[in-house]
Amino acid sequence: MKPASFAFGWLALLLSGTAFAQLPIWSGSFTDQGTGQNYNFVMVGNDPSNTGTTNVPVYLIPVVVKFDWTDCQTPYQNTFDPGTKVSNGETAIQNTIDSPVFTSINFTQGQSTNSQYLDAFQRSNFWGVVSSNTSYHTVLNPTLMTAQNIEVPSNDGRAQLYPPYGGCVDGVNPAWFAGQILSLLDTLEQTQDLSNGLALFLVYDVFAGQAPEYTPGGGGYHGWSLTPGLLEFQTYAWAAYNGGTCYQNGNQVPCPFADVTDVTHEVGEWFDDPRTTNRTGCAGDNALEVGDGSVLDQKYPYRGQNNFVYHLQDLKFLPYFRASGGTSWGPGWLSFQQESLTPCQ
Ligand SMILES: [Zn+2]
Fold first, then answer.
1. Cβ-contact 319, 343 below 8 angstroms
2. Which among 211, 255, 275, 282 is positioned nearest to 32, based on CA atoms?
3. How remote is the CA of residue 221 from the centroid of ligand 1, in Å?
4. What pLDDT, in 10s, does the model give residues 20-68?
């Protein structure tokens, strides 16, 4: 993700006042243990030291994406629909709703409580205070919205056979696609105010790719916009559900974006930086993006609803960003799934 011009966002926030239901957010700060400098942040939910459960709406908007250019011929495929049924017979939409992003499971890490993934992550991230305020929770409540459509002209992306990502998948010009998502968001906002939650656009097997080949690369995006006319602060993200079986050189390999991996990346980053204004003292990671980094993969499979095994991308704790110690779960843990990371430089 790229931070937008946030000065305008702050202005809009001031202007919108309390006239509209707003996304629940709280402010905190941490001290960089290298430089001693203080960094303020804004996160989704309420203060972990002294609040209970906060419910946050997530408007799940399936997007059917049709490509004018497809190289997928046997069978011919140019339309990618999150309503597609995947390996367990459920649709990608239903599997997303049933995933630990929106449905509680028992996590063994951190605070071993029955919770959603982001709640478990954040409770662990702030275990230094949550350990004496254990009723702290942030619960995401999904609302399934009407499916939307995007058609991709042949000069902005293509469907293609790409076995490492699971058969026939797509690469799309990320800047162009973000514009399409924003215009869908603007249209939706004209009939319903979504600004008290996250507008999450779910695509199926659509990834960012670069011209001219549009080989699928990274996944989605999270950001915010101002609702037309209302000058409200609206957070949004797009993310891909990946339903394929992935191969490299003829051998089956773990899919880099298996099932809800990309959803956990974007929703996780939104959770800890909804306004894309949070900064750190790290030269390489100067934005507080808890999902970024090449080593962050899905370390553990998690068994969710209907015995389906989900792959949740790991997310970084504050000490990874050189926050002074004692806040997060487990001495030395720099991420929820305890990958071997070193603090950022
Ligand atoms: Zn990211």
1. yes
2. 282
3. 7
4. 578 999 999 999 988 999 999 999 999 999 999 999 999 999 999 999 9
Question: What's the CA-to-centroid distance between 5 and ligand 1, angstroms?
Answer: 18
Exposure letters 120-135 (e unless 16+ CB within 10 A, then b): bbbbbbbbebbeeeee
Compute, in angstroms, the gap from residue 265 CA to the centroid of ligand 1: 6
d(CA 21, CA 57): 11
CA of 196 from ligand 1 middle (Å) equals 22
Cβ neighbours of 30 (radius 10 Å): 20
Instruction: Find the 44 Cα to ligand 1 centroid distance in Å.
Output: 16
pTM score > 0.90 for this model? yes
**CA-derived radius of gyration, the chain:** 20
Q: How far apart are CA 58 and CA 143, in angstroms?
A: 6
The residue whose two tokens read 């915010």 is: 224
Type of residue found at 299? K
In angstroms, what is the span from residue 237 Cα to ligand 1's centroid? 11
Ligand 1 centre to CA of 277 (Å) is: 14
Opening angle at CA 4, ends 150 and 217, nearest 5: 50
The four Cα atoms 322, 328, 330, 336 give a dihedral, to 10 degrees, of -90
Q: In whole angstroms, what is the distance from residue 95 CA to residue 85 CA?
A: 9
User: pLDDT of 96-118, one tens digit each?
Assistant: 999 999 999 998 776 667 999 99
In this structure, which amino acid lies at residue 306? N
CA 270 to centroid of ligand 1, rounded, Å? 9
Q: Are strands 53-67 and 137-144 parallel, antiparallel or unpaired?
A: parallel
Apex CA 287: angle with CA 331 and CA 293, to 5°?
Answer: 65
Residue 333 C-alpha to ligand 1 middle, in angstroms?
20
Q: What are 61's strand-pairing partners?
A: 201
Q: What is the rounded CA–CA span in Å between residue 76 and residue 27?
A: 50
